[in-house]
Amino acid sequence: PPPQISLRLYFDEWSRCLSSMYQRDSLYRFGRFDSCGPQWSDLKTAIRAKTMVSEPEKARGLLESTHYALNLGSDPANSPTAGGDLGAEGEAGLGRRGLMAVNRVKLELRAEAWTGTQKMMQRGN
Questions:
Q1: CA 81 to chain centre
Q2: Phi–psi pair at 101, nearest 5 degrees
Q3: What is the pTM of this model?
Q4: From the CA atom positions of the chain, what is the Rg in Å?
Q5: pLDDT tens, N- to C-terminus, the chain (125 residues)
Q6: Distance (Å, rounded) from C-alpha 24 to C-alpha 16?
């Protein structure tokens, strides 16, 4: 049977890469914007594979060669957008992108806590 191909997965990865928050993080961490070339290439490859109805093995091979399959795959620890528990390994089991996501959430929580502290101090005066 032909493989189930989710174009949404590849589109989501490409659009996540294009997002302003991801590009800001890339600029801060690496000193340059991310071209998102691998994600764009993956989307084109997925579209090509989806049209290969008569050649399911060739389509499967195309999907296995994508940036997503080789670098992120189905491991939620490597996904910058995956939520949920960090598991028994904690942060040590996460890939670079997973750690980036965890650190971003920590910073957001710290900012919220600081804002709450400032409001409490203002009420006290």
A1: 5
A2: -65, -45
A3: 0.56
A4: 19
A5: 556 888 888 899 899 999 999 999 989 888 999 999 999 999 999 999 888 878 888 888 888 888 888 877 655 565 554 444 444 344 444 556 666 666 666 666 666 666 666 666 677 65
A6: 12
